[in-house]
Amino acid sequence: MAKALITTVPFGDKNRLPLELLENAGIDYLINPLNKKLTEDQLADMVADFDVIIAGTELITEKVMARAPKLKLISRVGVGLDGVDLMAAKKRGIRVAYTPDAPAPAVAELTLGMMLTLLRSVHVSNAQMHEGKWQRIFGRRLAEITVGIIGVGRIGTRVLRRTKAFGTPRILVNDTMPNYELNREFKLDWVTKEQIYKEADLISLHLPLTRLTKNMIRREQLLSMKPDAIIINTARGGIINEGDLHDVMMAGHLSGAAIDVFEHEPYAGPLSQIERCLLTAHMGSMSVDCRTRMEIEATEEAVRFLSGKPLTSEVPQAEYDVQSQGL
Q1: Residue 258 class from Cβ within 10 Å (0-12 exposed, 13-18 middle, 19+ buried)?
Q2: Is 265 designated active site?
Q3: pTM over the 0.90 mark
Q4: 150, 236, 295, 313: which could join 209 in a potential S-S bond, CB 3.0 to 4.6 Å?
Q5: Considering 76, 123, 236, 291, which one is annotated as catalytic?
């Protein structure tokens, strides 16, 4: 009997269909017994007998794969591939699939919610009210600021579409592969990242984590932003240097930050000491519909593979190129 290890949790909580797909296909499965994000060593100790991993964001490294002689497919619940060593997988003949479109609507909507929360200091007022303080805070409207979007792919484009309804007057965008077709739909200024840092009132990141984007935003970039600028990261932990962000905000620079993703998760670092820093527990994709779609699509790929059928969402060569070259 084929065996699948489900490392991402929760799984099948809101909709049991993914588990039923495995059961109906006669596939034995184990859901992560530790009920938390696995470390590299924990995963390595767990993988020996499995043919497929239905994976979350944990590290699936050469070390892990070396301990998994039966492993032939990694089916990622989500889109980020920074945790999967694609080159090691390719060398070992392990195929990799993902669900690139499923989480995008939920992440885009959380990003928009963070924009409005930070612009109106909703999080700060809420904390003050819970402490018995009554203080009305002046804020800004989305239509009256300059928004900068770095990374205009599946999620960044959806963020653009959602901000459009607010009448944002100026949008600065940056992408390594600009899609100028978007100019038919939006009034965009394609500029450098440095120009976005200097001119945007609100900056939102929608990039993969690679060797080039790791620590892309450090003290220098943060200090080049406007003193009352806002920055949002719902992409990947490690793109913003968390220590530098803490120091810069503690010094009074930036009016707010919203961080949903962290270099090490669960996060328990000093950003939690800063009232105007909005922190969430990597929940960008955690709407019931999007999470369910992610789980179903990843499971369907596992079932297809173990049934000898073609994959429909195999990771394309371009993703391998990005990881191998650091682009």
Answers
A1: buried
A2: yes
A3: yes
A4: 236
A5: 236
